[in-house]
């Protein structure tokens, strides 16, 4: 594959896309991973996401840990929990090949669409955006099309009637687009703006506007919001394509809507140069339930059983899925974790599964999946390759769990070298479970943080 002048394209691309980077901390050269940086970056700003990391962080990982000779070999980048594709897109524009997995089909759609977006026919996309702007101006005065609404059960109507009519017109229009990539771009646009005109909001979890102290959304110009988003996406693609003079030098991307722990066999042994990812944190944030609107309205799921499959297959499980099970054992020997589980089981016993016993099942399930994860990584990573995992600590029932350190130490069980864990944000937004801080004997309080866990696969 012909190569771009890596330094020139990197410099020009970053000047345009990453002009608002945060300052690096004393953390081995890694950038602050906060996803909010992506909200101002072309392409990355398309899909709001509650978690993940910034494009600038991914670039810093490439610069620090990618060892392959990019002049003679195309590096392979893996993101097992790809989310909306930050790692994947950054790899593609550098000319690297990328492999991504995500169990959430909406996230997979976003990652795949962003990875392919630079190959879209600009004039065909522009024509569709103009057509949408013209047709959507009549949606308020035109009866809704005869299409079935999704069976999404909510405490109150997801859309108010005036907005819902426009939403149905939009879905009908998108369904009639014959170009697959353009259709996916419009579906992403729809999914990214739909909650903003609904009776629900992210605070940060999905809930009714009323419960957040906000009035119901009785009316909104959804047509204008959607067409504005589509025009923003068109402008982003044009601006980024203008930076890439040789499109044939873009990397290839392979995105799988799948559970990495069960579908990892699709990645060859010793094939991955660098793994960059951020798995679900040990904080029980319910990614599936928070994307239910997109999953149902974009027809990824049509009944609760399909949603249930996404929930039970999630990395680390959800507390709601394991709290009522019999004692979930740790499937590998680790004295420190066993001690934590024993302590958890003794906390708030009077609360039953809502106390320590249910949370002990959750923690055991989480680290059982962590053990399997590293077993797979040890197989697919090249000798000399690295893995950089963004993860945070957790406080459950008043007990701090240093997830980052435990991640690295469990990697050792599979012959990998635990290089270190670097604090990249010492105060992260969010709360822990039951207690938000831990008090030690010296009166010091510990807060939640983000860390990068760095692991290498040593030579024989």
Description:
With 460 residues, this protein is an alpha/beta fold. It folds into 2 domains: 6-112 and 250-288 and 302-456, Vaccinia Virus protein VP39 (Rossmann fold, 3-Layer(aba) Sandwich); 119-241, no CATH class. The protein contains 16 helices and 13 strands. Helix 6 runs antiparallel to helix 7 (180-193). The longest helix is centred in the last third of the chain and has 25 residues, at 356-380. It is globular, with a radius of gyration of 23 Å.
Throw out a few tags for this protein.
39% helix; 16 helices; Rossmann fold; two-stranded antiparallel ribbon; 2 domains; 14% strand; seven-stranded mixed beta sheet; alpha/beta; 460 residues
Strand order, sheet with most strands: 5-2-1-6-7-13-10
Relative helix content: 25-40%
What does the radius of gyration come to?
A: 23 Å
Distance between the termini: 30 Å
Strand content: 5-15%
Mean pLDDT: 87
Number of strands: 13
Tell me the name of the CATH class of the largest domain. Answer: Alpha Beta
For the record, the CATH architecture of the largest domain stands as 3-Layer(aba) Sandwich
Instruction: Describe the main β-sheet briefly.
Output: 7 strands, mixed
Q: Report the CATH topology name of the largest domain.
A: Rossmann fold
Q: Secondary-structure element sequence?
A: HHEHEHHHHEEHEHEHHHHHHEEEHEEEE
The CATH homology group name of the largest domain: Vaccinia Virus protein VP39
Please identify the structural class as seen in this structure: alpha/beta
> Per the principal axes of the C-alpha atoms, what is the gross shape?
globular
Oligomeric state of this protein = single chain
Number of domain units: 2
Low-confidence stretches: 1-26, 434-444
Count of DSSP-assigned helices: 16
């Amino acid at each position: 594959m012909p190569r771009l002048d890596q330094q020139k394209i990197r410099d020009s691309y970053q000047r345009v896309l990453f002009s608002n980077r945060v300052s690096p901390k004393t953390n081995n050269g890694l950038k602050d991973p906060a996803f909010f940086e992506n909200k101002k970056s072309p392409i990355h700003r398309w899909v709001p996401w509650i978690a993940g990391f910034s494009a600038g962080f991914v670039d810093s990982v490439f610069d620090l840990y990618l060892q392959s000779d990019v002049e003679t070999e195309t590096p392979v980048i893996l993101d097992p929990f790809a989310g909306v594709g930050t790692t994947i897109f950054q790899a593609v524009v550098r000319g690297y090949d990328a492999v991504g997995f995500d169990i959430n089909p909406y996230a997979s759609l976003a990652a795949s669409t962003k990875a392919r977006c630079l190959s879209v026919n600009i004039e065909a996309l522009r024509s569709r955006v103009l057509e949408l702007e013209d047709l959507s101006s009549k949606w308020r005065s035109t009866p809704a099309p005869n299409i079935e609404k999704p069976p999404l059960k909510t405490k109150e109507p997801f859309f108010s009637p005036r907005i819902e009519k426009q939403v149905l017109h939009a879905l009908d229009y998108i369904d009639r687009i014959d170009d697959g990539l353009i259709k996916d771009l419009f579906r992403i646009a729809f999914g990214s703006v739909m909650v903003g005109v609904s009776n629900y909001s992210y605070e940060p979890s999905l809930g009714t506007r009323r419960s957040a102290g906000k009035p119901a959304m009785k009316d909104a110009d959804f047509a204008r919001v959607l067409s504005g988003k589509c025009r923003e996406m068109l402008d982003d693609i044009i601006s980024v394509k203008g930076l890439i003079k040789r499109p044939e030098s873009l990397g290839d991307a392979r995105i799988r809507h799948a559970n990495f722990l069960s579908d990892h066999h699709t990645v060859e042994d010793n094939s991955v140069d660098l793994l960059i990812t951020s798995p679900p944190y040990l904080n029980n944030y319910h990614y599936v339930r928070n994307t239910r609107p997109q999953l149902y309205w974009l027809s990824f799921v049509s009944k609760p059983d399909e949603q249930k499959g996404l929930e039970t297959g999630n990395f680390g499980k959800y507390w709601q899925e394991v709290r009522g099970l019999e004692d979930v054992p740790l499937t590998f020997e680790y004295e420190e974790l066993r001690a934590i589980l024993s302590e958890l089981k003794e906390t708030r016993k009077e609360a039953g599964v809502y106390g320590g016993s249910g949370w002990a099942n959750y923690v055991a399930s989480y680290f059982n999946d962590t053990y399997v994860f590293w077993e797979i990584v040890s197989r697919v990573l090249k000798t000399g390759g690295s893995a950089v995992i963004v993860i945070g600590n957790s406080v459950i029932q008043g007990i701090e769990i240093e997830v980052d350190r435990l991640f690295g130490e469990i990697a050792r069980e599979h012959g990998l070298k635990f290089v270190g864990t670097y604090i990249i944000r010492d105060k992260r937004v969010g709360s822990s479970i039951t207690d938000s801080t831990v008090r030690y004997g010296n009166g010091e309080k510990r807060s939640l943080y983000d860390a990068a866990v760095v692991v290498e696969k040593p030579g024989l």
